[in-house]
Structure formats: structure tokens, C-alpha cells
Amino acid sequence: MKNYKFGVTSSEFGVIGRYLLLATYSLLLAGAASAQFALRWETDVARPAPAQFTRYHGDAFAFEPTWLAYGAPLATNGMTFTLYYQTNGMGNVWFTNTAGSAFEWLPQYDTGASAYTFFIGADGRNYQANGVLRMLPSPGFKPNMLTPPIPYLDFNLIEYLNAPWLLPSALDGYATEAWVENYVAENAPALTEADPVALPVAVAAGNLATQAMA
Hints:
Blueprint: H1 10-34, E1 37-44, E2 51-56, E3 61-69, E4 72-73, E5 81-86, E6 95-96, E7 104-105, E8 115-122, E9 126-136, H2 177-194, H3 198-213
Parallel strand pairs: 1-3, 2-9
Antiparallel strand pairs: 3-4, 3-7, 5-6, 5-8, 8-9
């Protein structure tokens, strides 16, 4: 048996070599397992179309879109990105990336839906990087119960079902008999000048109000 100068026999060197090989192989496997899977696609402003992907529930992966403008690379340096995603039936309400970057899909985003629509917004004005993410069942997956976002309320789009009149309590001190008589008297010339029909209508309304308060 041959001895090496540093005091290790050939058989011992073979054992050490095998251990080193196994350790190296294990590190390579660990690195491959920890590497995040990426969904890559090109999105051109001249041909807007949603990308289509399929992954498993509970997966974590990255979005890697390439922005193009008529086939040429579109500069996105310095832009601020936000991930928007929703399931069916959410209307104009969207979840956003709260835990990771706009280019990450994390398991905590997954509510258990069979599909998600997503957009990667650039500076709140460019939404060409978008797609549909279909999810497949996976063992052990537990849906994350996310609180739905609070939608923005646009009062210009609200249809009034009840006329927004003042409540009776708001008229206390104003809708008195004297107040009605003074209002009709003060506005009679203007009503007569504007519309000859308006004055009798106003007087009749004043009389009805006076009778109602009697």
C-alpha cells in the first residue's frame, strides 16, 4: 500500500475522494433545488397578447418578461414595477405584490383559484406584460386566505336610488310657516319674470307645506 507524503494511504485517499464527490454532488443538487424557476416571454407593444402559463399550486417562481417596441428592446431602466393579479369575479379590484418584488410569484399569493390574471405594471402606465396563470392541484397545498383589497369608490358612477334630500331633522328651524311665506314672497318677482307658470306652482307648494305643518 502506497503512502503519500502527507500521511494518507491510497485507500484512505479513495474514501476521502468519494466523500468529497458526494459532498460536491449534494451541493449542486441543493443549488439546483433553491434556484427559482422563471417564466420567460416576450411582450411587444405592437402585438399585445396575454402570455399563457401553467404551474402547480404552492409553486414559487419568477416572471421574466422582455419588453419590446415593434421588435426592438424597450428601455425599462428606472421604471417602478407593480404586480397586479386577480381571480375571476373580482371586477376592477386587484391584489398587488405585498411580500416580494413585482417579478416574483410567492405561495402566499395563491388563494387556491384555478387561474389568475396578472399584469406587471411599469410606472402605472405600461401594462403590456400580462398573462393568465393556470394552477394545477398539488399534494399538501393549503390556500392562503387573503383579505380582498378595498376597491376605489367612484361616486360619479353611483346611481342614486333615493333622491338625496335633506332629512327632516336637517330642516328644523327653517321649514316653518313664516320661512315658507317669506321665501315665496321674496322669490315671487324672479319666478314671475322667469316663468309665468312657476309662481302659481311655488305658491301652491307653499300652501301645501303650510297645511302640512298646521
